[in-house]
Amino acid sequence: RLRPGARVAVVAPCGPIPEDRLRAGLGILRRWGLDPVVAPHVLDAHPALAHLAGEDRARARDLTEAWCDPSVSAVICARGGFGAQRMVDLVDWGAVRAAGPKAFVGYSDVTALHEAFAVRAGFATLHGPMVAAGTFLSDARTQESLRATLFEPETVRTLGLETARALVPGRAHGVTLGGCASLLAADLATPHARSSARGGLLLLEDVGEEPYRLDRVLTQLIRSGLLDGLAGVALGSWVDCGPYEEVRAVLHDRLAPLGIPVVEELGFGHSATALTIPLGVPAVLDTESATLTLDVPALL
């Protein structure tokens, strides 16, 4: 867990960062008593591709150096977008493993890095808000969920918003994994990709994917065998994915035949309020209470 005065590094592994939003996010971290340090290339612009925050090697070097800096207690991403898949193989994962675990926070495109930390380093991470993301800047409950997870992790072991409900009833125990559904599908068959989620509790959310594209993504995950033996599924937000009743029909059609518990609208992802959900932590998914309860605090 973090304590007041802890140094946290802010990195930009994906898209470009608006400087005003970065300043606002850093202000929130400082009000929590943290000492945020911005990595050297966070405000870079790629020389040819406007959707990237600087060149791939620079973004990868920022992450590697931040992780390996013994004075840094946590690494928080500035925003998502696209770009993590371009730089993930350029991170020095041997050095990351040697440096040991610390808190890592992000979501959306950062799903590729959550998977890499799990598979290549064996570290748990936090699916949570990013420093320059609109939800983090505007929503107090989103901020508090991350703050409590970082500073008082024992107080946020039972997770779920009031919107959460059963899609497929049941109760399951497993280790959490997942993130953005389309990014998980894009990771399939790449070097070092996870080959199985057997026994796991899979978190899924996405943004801007119409129902037929969500069908394709979920079908790809199923056909790949990744979901064979999965214990349960927790679903987050589906912002700009079309009418929710259409999205829900796809989710039920694809996931119900797995015969495992599924909770919908748990409260994470691109939603107006986004809870911080630990990945790589054993937990219980209970559709009767519509909650995800961690066996242990996210951070020690």
From TrEMBL:
InterPro entries: Carboxypeptidase_A_C_sf, Class_I_gatase-like, LdcA_N, Peptidase_S66_N, Peptidase_S66C, S66_fam. GO terms for molecular function: carboxypeptidase activity; serine-type peptidase activity. Residues 8-128 form the LD-carboxypeptidase N-terminal domain. It holds the Pfam family Peptidase_S66. GO terms for biological process: proteolysis. Residues 174-284 form the LD-carboxypeptidase C-terminal domain. Keywords: Carboxypeptidase, Hydrolase, Protease, Serine protease. The keyword Protease applies. The active site is at S108 (nucleophile), E205 (charge relay system), H270 (charge relay system). The keyword Ribonucleoprotein does not apply. Belongs to the peptidase S66 family. This is Peptidase U61.
